[in-house]
Amino acid sequence: MLWRSRPALLLSKSEHFAADASQPRQFCSAAAPLPAPHQPSPAPIRSIPLRTTKLLLAGVIATAVAFTAAGCAGTATASAPETNASGVTTLKVGASFPATDILNYVESSQAAAAGLDLQVSEFSEYITPDTSLEDGSLDANLYQHLPFLNQFNKDHGTHIVPVGKVYFPPLALYSKKITSLDAIASGDTISIPSDVTNERRALLLLEKAGLITLNPNAAGPADIATNPKNLQFQELDAATLPRALDDVKAGIVNLTYALPAGLTSEQQIYKEDVTGTPYTNLLAVKSGNENNAAI
């Protein structure tokens, strides 16, 4: 058994990041049809700054991360992962960066001793990892927080459940043009993620920064109560937010995209507080496998 219930890992690169994941607006009405099954291929370990790598790897050791299974497409019942004649259980795990590096490290250093063969696949968007979990192409995934998981189940009729908290990377407001909140001027444009859960999360960050106030249960820019600087908001797929910084005064970017894009702590204007956050990234499986012996 690899998984142990421990506090979620807080990933940080100096005072750069603390760590989490975001996703794109492709939500439909309740129980929307699932995309066609996707067969992911393993992804190589990504080259990232050495200090970040050490912290990621140290976090794996501290949290003893492990993985379970998922099941058949379109049903609420999951099937168990396959175990060969030698007693080795193969687990197909989907993830987004930096979780892929965490998983690849577990595979190279800890999985064999636990009787596991981890097959890690990297995804650059946030729909396929859950649909692949639902249809059985994956056994587990590591990329989403609980609000996103709940929204995805609601919108797509899936049966995905969390196993345990793993790591938390906060959102941050970045800019390539200014260095402080005071430099944001009247009428400036701010880019934010377009998916339901992270758009609200981004607006809450802007509210805490003192740039706007929100109506109760705000979901998007239409729910802004006061906007003293008459800020404009550009809603974009999370993966495009780092590139959009060239065209806006500032933008809210998740660690999943900030690190690969080369964004630095010096470009952060305001960062999400980690205290009491619901946005810790989770290891998730299909319902029925949350108590699997491979965990």
TrEMBL record:
Transmembrane stretches in the record are: 55-76
The record's InterPro entries line, in alphabetical order, gives: Lipoprotein_NlpA
| Gene Ontology cellular component annotations, sorted alphabetically | membrane
Lipid linkage positions (S-diacylglycerol cysteine): 72
Q: Which UniProt keywords apply?
A: Lipoprotein, Membrane, Palmitate, Signal, Transmembrane, Transmembrane helix
Location in the cell: Membrane
Membrane topology for this entry?
Lipid-anchor
Q: Which family does it belong to?
A: Belongs to the nlpA lipoprotein family.
Q: What is this protein called?
A: Lipoprotein
Please give the organism: Subtercola vilae
